[in-house]
């Protein structure tokens, strides 16, 4: 598969591609292909044929799983700098999750066997792959701890904190998106938000959440 986009060294912001040799980078771009995706476009549905390694170049991507009853759990969000610039969740022959573009962008898609062959000959690319795997395992270990040991109200407060930086900030997440990140249902999130509003921690509007007091929110998350 031929890449339709040529990248010069100065244009490369993906850390894994920047670290490997010019020869390896050229082979990755030649043997793989760069795909442009629009916001909300599904790159790989869960269970779809995959067997590829992803190198995000621009934009952002989200990995999630959906239960039979429609409940969705966000596994991770990925940008070109996340997991050292390499995503291995689509490396099995079937994608382990739904892969969707949150914002428009480009991603280099390389077959797993081509990636493995090149990683054997380029120590920098091999090291980047190992680092990506380590960061991925660390993230999922933290996610399991988050879902298993934190109460839902604490998880809601923590996600709100992660998506705001000061009092008065607007959190640009719908209640459904918040529920997917927290790992619960929209109805449970709605009750938590109502309680936070009563405590003057947040203010709810039509399709928006405004943080009133990050100090109180931090206490809720602790």
Taking the sheet with the most strands, its summary is:
4 strands, antiparallel
The helicity comes to 40-55%
Report the β-strand fraction as a percent range. Answer: 15-25%
Q: State the low-pLDDT regions, or none.
A: 1-5
Structural class comes to alpha+beta
Count the strands?
A: 10
Instruction: Walk across the major sheet and give the strand order.
Output: 2-6-4-5
> How many DSSP H or I helices?
8
> Mean pLDDT, as a whole number?
89
Query: What does the radius of gyration come to?
Result: 19 Å
Run of helices and strands: HHEEEEEEEHHHEHHEEH
The dominant shape is elongated
**What is the end-to-end distance?**
50 Å
Describe the structure.
This protein is an alpha+beta fold. Helix content is 41%, strand content 23%. The protein has helices at 15-19, 22-31, 112-121, 123-149, 152-162, 175-182, 186-198, 214-221, and strands spanning 33-37, 42-44, 52-56, 60-66, 72-78, 98-103, 105-111, 170-171, 202-205, 208-211. The protein has a four-stranded antiparallel sheet with strand order 2-6-4-5. Strands 1-7-3 form a three-stranded antiparallel sheet. The protein has a three-stranded antiparallel sheet with strand order 8-10-9. β4 (60-66) and β5 form a beta hairpin. α5 packs across α6, α5 (152-162) crosses α8 (214-221) and α6 (175-182) packs across α7 (186-198). It is elongated, with a radius of gyration of 19 Å. Residues 1-5 have low confidence and may be disordered.
What's a quick, concise take on this entry?
This protein has 222 residues and is α+β, with helices and mostly antiparallel strands. 41% of the residues lie in helices and 23% in strands.
């Amino acid at each position: 598969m031929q890449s339709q986009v040529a990248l010069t060294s100065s244009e490369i912001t993906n850390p894994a591609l920047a670290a490997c040799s010019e020869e390896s980078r050229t082979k990755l771009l030649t043997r793989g292909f760069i795909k442009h995706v629009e916001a909300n476009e599904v790159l790989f549905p869960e269970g779809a044929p995959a067997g590829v390694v992803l190198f995000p170049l621009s934009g952002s991507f989200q990995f999630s799983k959906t239960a039979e009853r429609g409940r969705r759990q966000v596994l991770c969000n990925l940008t070109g700098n996340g997991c050292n610039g390499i995503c291995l969740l689509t490396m099995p022959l079937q994608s382990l999750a739904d892969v969707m573009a949150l914002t428009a962008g480009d991603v280099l898609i390389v077959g797993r066997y081509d990636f493995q062959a090149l990683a054997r000959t380029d120590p920098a690319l091999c090291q980047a792959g190992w680092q990506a795997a380590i960061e991925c395992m660390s993230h999922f270990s933290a996610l399991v701890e988050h879902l298993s040991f934190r109460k839902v109200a604490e998880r809601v407060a923590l996600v709100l904190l992660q998506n705001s930086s000061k009092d008065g900030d607007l959190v640009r997440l719908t209640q459904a998106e918040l529920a997917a990140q927290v790992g619960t249902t929209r109805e449970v999130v709605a009750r938590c938000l109502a309680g936070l509003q009563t405590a003057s921690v947040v203010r709810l509007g039509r399709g928006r959440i405004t943080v009133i007091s990050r100090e109180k929110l931090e206490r809720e998350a602790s």
